[in-house]
């Protein structure tokens, strides 16, 4: 077991190593895909990446429900 100055040095080295690993791990596909899903359907809570897809989803899955106001001007 390290004591004193050696202990402090090993803690600093480990903190630096952990920070580098966290920085390298920052770009993965799962978080990027989750960030791209911005529109959420109010009826079924499914997520869509853009308003065009959202409108197509809403028209096909929820035809009896009224169109949300954010989809009024969107062309499908």
From TrEMBL:
GO CC aspect terms: cytoplasm; nucleus
Domain C2H2-type per the UniProt entry, residue ranges: 39-61
Segments of this protein annotated with the region Disordered: 1-32, 50-76
Domain Small EDRK-rich factor-like N-terminal span(s) in chain numbering: 1-37
Record's keyword terms, sorted: Cytoplasm, Metal-binding, Nucleus, Repressor, Translation regulation, Zinc, Zinc-finger
One MF term in the entry's GO annotations: zinc ion binding
Tree of life domain: Eukaryota
Segments of skewed composition (Basic and acidic residues): 17-31, 52-62
Gene Ontology biological process terms, A to Z: regulation of translation
Entry's localization field: Cytoplasm; Nucleus
Any matching Pfam family: SERF-like_N
InterPro entries with a match to the protein in the record: MBS1/2-like, SERF-like_N, ZNF706/At2g23090_sf, Znf_C2H2_type
UniProt keyword Lipid metabolism, yes or no: no
Protein's recorded name: Zinc finger protein 706
Native species: Austrofundulus limnaeus
This protein's encoding gene: znf706
